[in-house]
Amino acid sequence: MDTPASDGTATRRTLRRKVSRKNYDENAMDELIEKQIGGNLKKKFRTKQDLEKETETEALIALSVGFPIDELLEEEIRAGVVRELGGKEQNDYIVVRNHIVARWRDNVRMWLLKDEIRETVSSDCEHLISAAYDFLLFNGYINFGVSPLFGPYIPDEGTEGSVIVVGAGLAGLAAARQLLSFGFKVLVLEGRSRPGGRVYTHKMGDKDRFAAVELGGSVITGLHANPLGVLARQLSIPLHKVRDNCPLYTSEGAVVDKVADSNVEFGFNKLLDKVTEVREMMDGAAKKISLGEVLETLRVLYGVAKDPEEKKLFDWHLANLEYANAGCLSNLSAAYWDQDDPYEMGGDHCFLAGGNWRLINALAEGLPIMYGKSVDTIKYGDGGVEVISGSQIFQADMILCTVPLGVLKKKSIKFEPELPTRKQAAIDRLGFGLLNKVAMLFPSVFWGEELDTFGCLNESSIDRGEFFLFYAYHTVSGGPALVALVAGEAAQRFELTEPSALLHRVLKKLRGIYGPKGVVVPDPIQTICTRWGSDPFSYGSYSHVRVGSSGADYDILAESVRNRLFFAGEATTRQHPATMHGAYLSGLREASRILHVANFFRSYPKKPVQRYSGVNIDVLEDLFRRPDIATGKLSFVFNPLTDDPKSTGLVRVCFGNFEDDPTNRLQLYTILSREQANKLQELDENSDGNKLSYLISALGLKLMGANSVLDTGGALISVIANARKGRRVMR
């Protein structure tokens, strides 16, 4: 079966206080947009007041999508959208950018053309229109999704290159659609017999009575600026707000006293605040301690939940926290467990009417997906990539791997060459937890039409996560379906228990709640128990920051290898891990990166060195007579006309006593980015061995002789040499 790429958070999940900011709501803002933007844009002549009001509204929308009010994103700076930072041109660019974002959000079903922007923005800003529109288009901020009206704007044939996408989950589907729109040839390989990965809607029952139940990722967590909300709008699918009312019951069926509930929840939240204070005082030492250890120490110290009944209630909140993070508190890092909180999307948590399969099917429609293709080996190198699945071999220019972190941890896929040490270490450090479910279809809604969720306390701490929370799907599934959640240690024991025993226990709990009220709990028509931990295509549910790890490991996991092997998925996004929208956004991100690399390859194609007039060993040696950076035995040269961290240059490593006897030397070269060169510089200046080891093992770069680098990087050498000549002429 499958696992939740993100089940999101429970309605009662504790949230730390955050800086308040206005947000764009896919539903609530529709009227405001139509009134203040759509109307004004249709006017040929607008007053100064109209323009100021319109600009303010557009800035609000752009802010909610993720753009700062008066600054550029780092990605925009790297893309060089303006010639000078901080001046009038930057301010004008931001206004144009916000305008484009707001125009598309006004009607996400239509493909926004650059000419439409020219109609409403002064011709004096033509260069800013192109810069902003291209950045937003190619980075997945506009014209993304599943609108049927996008068809005419998708190229019929791929001319940009070929990409294999491994995995048809949200990340893989998002990337594949985006790459097709960019003009790539795409093939998706999926090991399962269906798309969606850890997002899995199962139809329970028969033709006369059925319900669509989420066995994997279920809740759209935060509707403000959520890309899944955009997809729902494009498909005209209603969203159901998960209502706040979540009563808690004891095992005897009594409703937990509201005063006691409020007091324990208040104490629980105060302890989380104390955890923040403690880790700040401990500084780096907090990296080695678990959240569970710190919470229990503080609970005893401050006398929270000393009473046995209060302790059961406190345990419920701990179980809810373990659910939100798909991990036992004993594994969560006290220092970084909540590192993504500042980026959490605001707004309502919602169910999708009819089930998330409606989004998955729309994303998969028309894509070249081959099902039942378990990937055994991924080979990558300068000549392209090769994927082995059973007896079949698939080849392409680049590959995007979107398999879950659990699969990478199990090393189910062999990489040739092996992944860089830096990336493998991040894979090992990050946590990948477990959440399981029991889905039940009943003859009737015995729990009450007014409830979307309700919880139940457990008698012992060790069982706190067993059936602690119930999701009711009767409002959106088409039938009286109920799902019981199992988190923490209980989720691990769940996988080793017979389904009949699990059903007996969950029914006993439900009858304990409703029996005293005189409500008969019938036997379910159908029951399904998930087994995400033993699923060979996931080996777990979703990621968390484990003790010894940090948010930086998400970034490392997202790094590409040799501009051939790329990674996406919820465990590759530092800002939105363990969420469905995080998985989707990571797919858009990698599609943009692949396009960037393809453009670079096209600009600097690999050709025989003799095709580049004047590019020979003398030109190469002349470049390194005046290196841009020299540290120990390593020298670097780059194109002086660009400071882009992604721009590439050359590094030379000298072996032997080069200074004393230039004839007794061995020189090897490789191509790397400025960003990689900066990482090398950050290492110990006096340790050439460490730098060389990092260059080969961590960065995965291959050293080569002069002839090989002339053959491989002839175009790059020519560009750098000519740029240096041009710079001298300008001086």
TrEMBL record:
Q: Outline the segment boundaries, as ranges, of region: Disordered.
A: 1-22
Record field: transmembrane: none
Q: Which Gene3D superfamilies match?
A: 3.90.660.10, FAD/NAD(P)-binding domain (3.50.50.60), Winged helix-like DNA-binding domain superfamily/Winged helix DNA-binding domain (1.10.10.10)
The cross-references to InterPro entries, in alphabetical order and at most eight, read: Amino_oxidase, FAD/NAD-bd_sf, Flavin_monoamine_oxidase, Homeodomain-like_sf, SWIRM, WH-like_DNA-bd_sf
Keyword Plastid assigned to the entry: answer is no
Q: Which UniProt keywords apply?
A: Chromatin regulator
Write out the biased-composition intervals (Polar residues). 1-12
Q: Does the keyword Zinc apply?
A: no
PANTHER family attached to this UniProt entry: FLAVIN MONOAMINE OXIDASE, LYSINE-SPECIFIC HISTONE DEMETHYLASE 1 HOMOLOG 2
Q: Which family does it belong to?
A: Belongs to the flavin monoamine oxidase family.
Entry protein name: Lysine-specific histone demethylase 1 homolog 2-like
The source organism is Camelina sativa
Gene label:
LOC104745624
